[in-house]
Amino acid sequence: MTARDLTRLTALQMADGLAAGEFTSVELTQAHLDRIERLNPSLNAYLLVDAEGALATAANVDAARAAGEDLPRLAGVPVAVKDIACTRGLPTTAGSRMLEHFVPPYDATIVTRLKDARMPILGKTNMDEFAMGSSTEHSAFGPTRNPWDLERIPGGSGGGSSAAVAAYLAPLAIGSDTGGSIRQPAAVTGSVGVKPTYGAVSRYGIIALASSLDQIGPCARTVADAALLHEVLAGHDPMDSTSIDAPVPPVVAAATGTRDLTGLRVGVVKEIAREGYQEGVSRCFEEALQHLRDLGAQVVEVSCPHFVHAMAAYYLIQPSEASSNLARYDAMRYGSRTTPEGSPSAEQVMAASRDAAFGDEVKRRIILGTYALSSGYYDAYYGQAQKVRTLIAGDFTAAFEQADVLVSPTTPTTAFRIGDKLDDPMAMYLNDIATIPANLAGVPGMSIPSGVADEDGLPVGFQLLAPAMEDQRLYAVGAALEARLAEAQGGYVFEKAPEIEVQA
Amino acid sequence: MTATTDRTVPYADALTRYEPVMGLEVHVELSTATKMFCGCATEFGAEPNTQTCPVCLGLPGALPVVNRTAVESAIRIGLALNCRIAEWCRFARKNYFYPDMPKNFQTSQYDEPIAFDGWLDVEVPANEAGEPPFTFRVEIERAHMEEDTGKSTHVGGATGRIHGADYSVVDYNRAGIPLIEIVTKPLVGAGDRAPEVARAYVAALRDLLRALDVTHGRMEQGNIRCDANVSLMPIGSEVLGTRTETKNVNSLRSVERAVRYEITRHAAVLDAGEKVFQETRHWHEDTGITTAGRPKSDADDYRYFPEPDLVPVAPSREEVERLRATLPENPAERRKRLQGEWGFSDLEMRDVVNAGAVEVIEETVAAGASPAAARKWWTGDLARRANADGVAVTDLGVTPAHIAELDGLVTGGRLNDSMARQVMDGVVAGEGTPTQVADARGLELVQDDGALQAAVDKVIAANADVAEKIKGGKVQAAGALIGQVMKEMRGQADAAKARELILATLGVEG
């Protein structure tokens, strides 16, 4: 098998191939590193590549396997990590100038878990600064490009991870989803992305955007691959008070189990499923619904009346928490420092450093959040938004009485062109209209590719939502639909991406 | 900033026109082994920045986890202060920028304290002016949990404060140490005794916290820090005046003095028809005055919101009752009970308390000594020895059992007081138990009445004039003869028995 072929395998096939001794982890990892070296200059998916570290882990796994050691399922399968997770000894920037030279002295819990799973870490992927954005254009280190069309955005904030997975620069990647930052990039790159139940995966060592909304999850090309990574990441962590202390749902079993959906009730959420979507997005969505019916599911329409307020509530809660979470970046103990002329006070150094090192979108949200939390405005903004949040959670509870899973298109449109929405924050925010309710309520969500839009030839995402702690439902339904779509469409959606032209 | 001396009016004068109102905020550093939200050690005096981790340094991605022991301590403090314990409460973030605060927000409870609506009865002792002791009920508004900040040291500049400093260094060992802030309701009605009430309250609180064993309780190390809010109301008014907050008053004496000073300063401002400026004040131990700190308004905006990285604290009622069962006896009540049991006068008991000898006397009595003997040894002879050596009385190597044994030797007639002190010399020198020392040193009262009678006869013969006086009824003159008899006996006699024999020989009724 040639090096190029290895990168085309699914993570499951890689794991099986490694276990069977068909190839080594060093070969597999090197194949990815070669492809990264060739294509990353065009894509800018990785901010940092740790060839040495990845190959060392790979060699170690190969040696262990040769010695007959019992190894975890994904041992030797490489993975990319969003640059929002702290990696000991490897720069961790969160896409910001502020942390350009920050090298964490500790590993995020999920990084420890990847290391325990003996997965070579290829590098750190690009993202919107502090995960604020839906296009990766807000990265201080340049935008990531969509493998389907280099003039288009790969989604955000986790555009680096989605582009890396879609372009075969990694079989698996870590994402973080605060309002859709795993699912929306998955949708616009034809890949799979899962936001687990809030608290399912530890946030310890993840650079916080909005603590009550942030959730770490897997990015992959197939549902089964996502499940394998989900199982590595999930589980209780005593270092994260909000982490769930309960067994991890059987996601791998669900993703590799029966394809029969007889008796399943699928709820189409009226408020986020039917209006304002690009033609090709709507068509793919309706086709996917028909496939679900063909698999035996019963499709019903449900209403979540408060979802119309989700966007407004989200853009108060998220900036409020962010304004506080980002206060620590004051250049006193670490971070990029700017010292004004003369003999400035500590306060003036803080202000100058924050002014110089934060991008516009970050400043916009810090200002918005600071305002929303201010005395005299708190009740009207933050307080009111929290009430909306409660109502949205109530909508989900009611909807899940009528349906086992809820569905909608993941995004209103396919990938837009780089620069198109950069001057219009509201248009940018509207990308997340269908993904935000899940974050507000803490329920799990998945985006899988459901086809390609006729009008632009770009992939379309299909969103599944399940009740909290029922993540396995996403995998069961997602895997069944994925298989059915692949059958009907003559292959997986991600296989339809054009080969990337290497920039001279 | 230059410290100007403010005008004041004489204290007694101020009290003729104004009623002082106080609000006391006491910060208590808990003596937990680890910090409030991480596993770092809390040991005092370690090398700067050696007791830190990603959490208490506010590194990117770090998350807090609540220290369960700190929550238990908070609940026990709340219960000891007769508070209600919240069934469900949260932490909040208090947002402001300061270099010694790693996250630029302090994780603190805000409008949902763990304990609230309590009280503490405070015994205010009689004062030097002869005013009588009384009991003042201090109403407790709340006791809540929070974390300490790092400790800044500003180098250079005149004031030791951040403004004007050449540079500043920060020790984050203190960042994240668990604190309990105990806030009183406005204390009204103490009149001219208000400063004494403030002192007595902090003292009572300190004793209570020590009895709970939740803090090291050393004010000089900042384990207990008091902020004193003071305002004045014209007598007859019911409208609270503008308050000032004197920060970090760190000794009992200073609490009293600072409150007293602020009363005299406020009165001068009000007398002049001016307004008291709402601000924090810095207390100066050396000069006994306060100086202006930063302006403080109720509009200070800390943008509090519930801490999303922590789950609510929801102690079950069973848990609260389990903790209630661990509460020690209230120190004030305990003192009252022991004073009764021991038969000490108020003055004797006060000396015992001031000497910090309540516990050791209790143990000594339990070991079999009489309360009087226990008190005499621990607050007398041993206190002097400890004082001379500059050590604690309990660090002399003398145990309650030693005292009980020695007391037994005295009451059993083997030793007199002077011999007992010689035995104590040996015990302190590590020569063994009192019996071992007495044996080794050959200390024992002469039990042979013949030898004593001979000495008595000899002394009477040599002091005929004194003997005549005694015969004439001046029995107290016997003291002079007893001394000489003891000298004859080289101290190895029972003085009471010598007195008895002298009087009998002279035919006088004792």
TrEMBL record, chain A:
Record's catalysed reaction(s) = L-glutamyl-tRNA(Gln) + L-glutamine + ATP + H2O = L-glutaminyl-tRNA(Gln) + L-glutamate + ADP + phosphate + H(+)
GO (cellular component) term, any one = glutamyl-tRNA(Gln) amidotransferase complex
All copies of domain Amidase, residue ranges? 27-474
Show which residues constitute the signal peptide.
none
Pfam families in the cross-refs: Amidase
Q: Which InterPro entries match?
A: Amidase, Amidase_CS, Amidase_dom, AS_sf, GatA
Q: What class of enzyme is it?
A: ligase
Q: Which keywords describe this protein according to UniProt?
A: ATP-binding, Ligase, Nucleotide-binding, Protein biosynthesis
**Its Enzyme Commission number?**
6.3.5.7
Kindly give the Gene3D superfamilies that the UniProt entry links to this protein.
Amidase signature (AS) domain
Q: Name one GO biological process term.
A: translation
What GO molecular functions are on record for this protein? ATP binding; glutaminyl-tRNA synthase (glutamine-hydrolyzing) activity
Active site feature: K82, S157, S181
Q: What does this protein do?
A: Allows the formation of correctly charged Gln-tRNA(Gln) through the transamidation of misacylated Glu-tRNA(Gln) in organisms which lack glutaminyl-tRNA synthetase. The reaction takes place in the presence of glutamine and ATP through an activated gamma-phospho-Glu-tRNA(Gln).
Family the entry assigns: Belongs to the amidase family. GatA subfamily.
Instruction: Give the HAMAP family listed for this entry.
Output: GatA
Q: Which NCBIfam families match?
A: gatA
Recorded protein name is Glutamyl-tRNA(Gln) amidotransferase subunit A
Organism taxonomic ancestry? Bacteria, Bacillati, Actinomycetota, Actinomycetes, Micrococcales
Q: Gene of origin?
A: gatA
UniProtKB/TrEMBL annotation, chain B:
GO terms, biological process: glutaminyl-tRNAGln biosynthesis via transamidation; translation
Task: Write the Enzyme Commission number(s) for this entry.
Answer: 6.3.5.-
Q: Does the keyword Transcription apply?
A: no
Q: Which reaction does it catalyse?
A: L-glutamyl-tRNA(Gln) + L-glutamine + ATP + H2O = L-glutaminyl-tRNA(Gln) + L-glutamate + ADP + phosphate + H(+); L-aspartyl-tRNA(Asn) + L-glutamine + ATP + H2O = L-asparaginyl-tRNA(Asn) + L-glutamate + ADP + phosphate + 2 H(+)
The record's section on SUPFAM superfamilies has: GatB/YqeY motif, Glutamine synthetase/guanido kinase
Note whether Nucleus occurs among the keywords: no
Q: Where is the Asn/Gln amidotransferase domain?
A: 359-506
Q: Which UniProt keywords apply?
A: ATP-binding, Ligase, Nucleotide-binding, Protein biosynthesis
The UniProt GO MF terms for this protein read: ATP binding; glutaminyl-tRNA synthase (glutamine-hydrolyzing) activity
Which Pfam family would be a valid example here? GatB_Yqey
Which family is this sequence assigned to?
Answer: Belongs to the GatB/GatE family. GatB subfamily.
**Its biological function?**
Allows the formation of correctly charged Asn-tRNA(Asn) or Gln-tRNA(Gln) through the transamidation of misacylated Asp-tRNA(Asn) or Glu-tRNA(Gln) in organisms which lack either or both of asparaginyl-tRNA or glutaminyl-tRNA synthetases. The reaction takes place in the presence of glutamine and ATP through an activated phospho-Asp-tRNA(Asn) or phospho-Glu-tRNA(Gln).
Summarize subunit and interaction data from the UniProt record for this chain. Answer: Heterotrimer of A, B and C subunits.
UniProt protein name: Aspartyl/glutamyl-tRNA(Asn/Gln) amidotransferase subunit B
Taxonomic source organism: Ornithinimicrobium tianjinense
Taxonomic lineage: Bacteria, Bacillati, Actinomycetota, Actinomycetes, Micrococcales
Name of encoding gene: gatB
